[in-house]
Design goal:
Strand content of chain B: under 5%
Order of helices and strands of chain A: HHHHH
Distance between the termini of chain A: 76 Å
CATH topology of the largest domain in chain B: Arc Repressor Mutant, subunit A
Helix content of chain B: 55-70%
Structural class of chain A: mainly alpha
Largest sheet of chain B: none
Number of helices of chain B: 9
Largest interface: A-B, 41 and 50 residues
Low-confidence stretches of chain B: 1-9
CATH architecture of the largest domain in chain B: Orthogonal Bundle
Strand content of chain A: under 5%
Shape of chain A: elongated
Oligomer: heterodimer
Mean pLDDT of chain B: 86
Helix content of chain A: over 70%
CATH superfamily of the largest domain in chain B: Winged helix-like DNA-binding domain superfamily/Winged helix DNA-binding domain
Distance between the termini of chain B: 74 Å
Number of domains of chain B: 2
Amino acid sequence: MTGALKKIIYNCKQATFLIEKRTLGKITAAEALQLQVHLAGCSMCRTYQKQSMLIIRLFTGFPSDKIRLDDAFKVKLQQRIEKEMNKN
Amino acid sequence: MEQEKTAINSPLKSDPVTWVEKYADYLYRFAFSRLRDEEIARDLVQDTFLAALQQVSRFEGKSSEKTWLTGILKNKVADFYRRQASKGITTIRTAETEQQNFFDADNGHWNTQHYPKAFGLDENNPLLLKELGGILNTCLKKLPALWFSVFSMKHMDDLASEKICMELKLTDANFWVIMHRTKLNLRACLQKHWN
């Protein structure tokens, strides 16, 4: 086993970093292998990986269609716009 | 003659009096989903309308009103992110020390108290996801401003990391460190407040 592989087996900090980098960008073939070896033996980082994906899903799937600007603010905004228009 | 008449009857291609009714909710959702802060989102919607008023005479109707207004808002959001980034340097330090405790300083293994534990929920249950999403919103508010900006730009606008680095004046290495730490923090926060 190479030094890099030995090092990664316990290194959850590096493994979680690679998980993030792989999700959003690119990792090298060597890094992908390191990560695979690590995940095979580390259930905590497998849990992390699953939850990391879930967090993205929760963040981007935020139900924004139900959100509305409150009416009082809208009224004020409308008045402000009309006032600004009359200035010109 | 005919042309002149049209010009007088509709001097503007867009009528600001109708903006609030037509676009305020849409623009607010756009801003809120990126900033997750009611007050800031509201202010940016207002700033957008006021800026649009200044430019309305130059609006030629080549794009739709909605696209035009959204474009103005996008710039406001980008300005906001940049301001956050420039003042975010100090807050990084605190969160950095907190985050170091997640892992053993020597071998990088999870420290016992920070082991990721399964949330034990059915990921297809919409009610549980909604509850977890609510907790996530609270956790997002605790992030250093710069981290939140990076996270939101990446996920809500799907921007390339190079673009984000350029906008916020970050190095590529900084970018990945921030993405990693943001996720570690959010995950830990969810675990702490779930159940």
